[in-house]
């Protein structure tokens, strides 16, 4: 099991997520998010996993930058943890 953190692999992405979450309590969780690699559910899926595959609930949270959707976060059922990240705008990866 990887012990990498998202902010070590994609520092710009992690910073962007925290910035766009503003005062949302989820912002405080970004620094400690693990990075478990890209999702392998299908050939076309480019989601980044921050929890084991299959643990994301259908609770999406889309983040906007300058009015444009750049990221969609999948949260756990309680809405308090980010389980995977769909990158809609590759510019946020840096
Ligand atoms: Zn997937």
Strand order of the largest sheet: 1-4-3-2
Q: In the residues, how many domains can be counted?
A: 1
Molecular shape: globular
Distance between the termini: 25 Å
Give the ligands present. zinc ion
Describe the oligomeric state of these chains in a short phrase. Answer: single chain
* Rg, alpha carbons: 12 Å
Number of strands: 4
Task: Characterize the main sheet.
Answer: 4 strands, antiparallel
Describe this structure in words.
The protein is of the alpha+beta class. It has one domain. It has 2 helices and 4 strands. It has helices spanning 6-9, 11-21, and strands at 48-49, 60-65, 68-75, 82-87. The chain has a 4-stranded antiparallel sheet with strand order 1-4-3-2, covered by helices on one side. A hairpin with a 2-residue loop joins strand 2 (60-65) and strand 3. It is globular. It binds zinc ion (ZN). Zinc ion (ZN) binds next to loops.
Short description:
The protein has 94 residues and is α+β, with helices and mostly antiparallel strands.
How is the topology of this model organized?
Elements: H1 6-9, H2 11-21, E1 48-49, E2 60-65, E3 68-75, E4 82-87
Antiparallel strand pairs: 1-4, 2-3, 3-4
This protein binds zinc ion (ZN).
Key attributes of the depicted protein:
94 residues, alpha+beta, four-stranded antiparallel β-sheet, 2 helices, 4 strands, 23% strand, globular, binds zinc ion
